[in-house]
Amino acid sequence: MVRLILFGPPGAGKGTQAQTLAKSWQIPHISTGDILRAAVAEKTDLGVKAQANMNRGELVPDQLVTAMVQERLRQPDTKPGWLLDGFPRNVVQAHTLEQFLQQSAQIYDRVINLEVPDDVLVARMLSRGRQDDNEAVIRRRLEVYREETAPLIDFYRGRQSLIDINGDVSVEAVTTAIKDAIAKPDS
Ligand code: AMP
Question: How far is the CA of 186 from the centre of ligand 1 (A)?
Answer without folding.
Answer: 31
